[in-house]
Amino acid sequence: MIQNPILPGFNPDPSIVRVGDDYYIATSTFEWYPGVQIHHSRDLVNWRLLTRPLTRASQLNMLGAPDSCGVWAPCLTYADGLFWLIYTDVKRYGRTSSGAATGSASLRDFHNYLVTSPSIEGPWSDPVYLNSSGFDPSLFHDDDGRKYLLNQLWDHRPGGNRFAGIVMQEYSPQERKLIGKRENIFKGTPHGLTEAPHLYKRNGYYYLFTAEGGTGWNHGVTMARARDLHGPYELHPQQTILTSRNRPDLDLQRAGHADLVETPDGQTYMVYLCGRPLRNRGTCTLGRETAIQRMQWDDDGWLRAAAPQREAEAPGLPEHRFPPAPVREDFDDARLPLAFQWLRTPWPEELFSLTARAGYLRLYGRESIGSQFRQALVARRQQAHCYSASTVLEFEPEHYQQQAGLVCYYGAAKFHYLYISHDDENGKHLRVMSSLPNHVQTDTFTVPVPIPAGVPVQLRVEVDEERLHFGYRLADGAWQWLPQQFDASILSDEANAPGMPNFTGAFVGMACQDMSGAGLHADFDHFSYEERPYRLNPPI
């Protein structure tokens, strides 16, 4: 059996392709760098994170991108001896992008690009610019060798439908541009919010998949087909072929944004995004994850409608396991461990180094936490509702504008940050700053706890669903736990201030700030992350 989700934690908008006996899934990364996650499997059961292809400024530069912008909905295909990767770089989305809660919320900037590579691990080409008419682009390779770009069409005009349908236009590899006339081939259904197109050809039909209902609780997969590529497309008799809509009993909610793959013996599998709400709060701290399950074709040529499954039938391929991910990273390599990312910038040397001090991750204090530009924050996904994480920090601040520590982070307005700083009254100390998006008081601070100078400090966080606790210890002394219980449920898509987009998920990692401009650094000895069962009692 397959245990869903197959890609736990923030891994939305899956696009799947099979090349020989290998399966690859590309997922969105939004403002986290490098761009696009690609996972690999040989049996559709066991998966490993393999690579992130958008690694340099010519491919992706997200400096200044608002939260939940950046890389949306990649599409990964294989044809003509090449991997083809299409992605959107979103520069503006939602009211927070306009700089004021009342300004021009209908305007968006979606730039769609294409990169290619003969190998899944690269090197990937510099991008070809395609268009900016909407998001969720995908590339369809027809039997005659012609290629077509599809994407959601955005209409900013008043009184109309923002999600104006799915448009298609031919792409010329020789000319490296779109050619011919743009066509709106599918205007959607009453579910609305039509997006995420994928096109397939089977038994003389062109099948169009879209996501509808929005990427929240009403999300679903809509299916249509046509004998001619250009349409008209008729709807599936049930319209929606996979959804959690109106099914609060299901473990996997928010299901939608799907893609298909076939095994060598003709079995059809669907990958789709989903969310696992917390039991007590109903919020998805893990963001939108990726699940998979087998789909059945009926005799009438339609896929049979199904509900998301926590356990799905495996295809019976030879088992292919991968080594388990390490619990502890000691930063002994000159490259950042693959599980970790940073925010926005293609120039990470401005933020951190793994060679300045052997065996340590050194973060250089830059802008404040939550900055949309140069923020020294290195983190990994939270992939389970219950986990323990810790690090050892060496940091000697001189005043309150210098901070470094352990952070549980969703975005600029949603985090809990256990940091070390210094002021005249308390000397060197630690405290927690919380940014709470749906509270009356949005920024809160705990009382400073004085700690000695010149001593490494071990920082720790324990998360049990909606409960979050911070602790610390000096050298090999006993753990000291802060008395406060923090609300982990704010690190979710659903915890939100009006007008703010929320499309990512919770991360846990290390951060350093120096608003004085001196660039004081912080050295982190290691980082441990371990998933575990739910613990009824707090660690105090």
TrEMBL record:
The UniProt record lists the keyword Hydrolase: yes
Keyword Ribosomal protein attached: no
Signal sequence residues: none
Keywords attached to this entry: Glycosidase, Hydrolase
GO annotation terms (biological process): carbohydrate metabolic process
SUPFAM superfamilies (alphabetical): Arabinanase/levansucrase/invertase, Concanavalin A-like lectins/glucanases
Beta-xylosidase C-terminal Concanavalin A-like domain: residues covered: 328-530
Active-site feature positions: D13 (proton acceptor), E195 (proton donor)
Family designation: Belongs to the glycosyl hydrolase 43 family.
UniProt name for this protein: Glycoside hydrolase family 43 protein
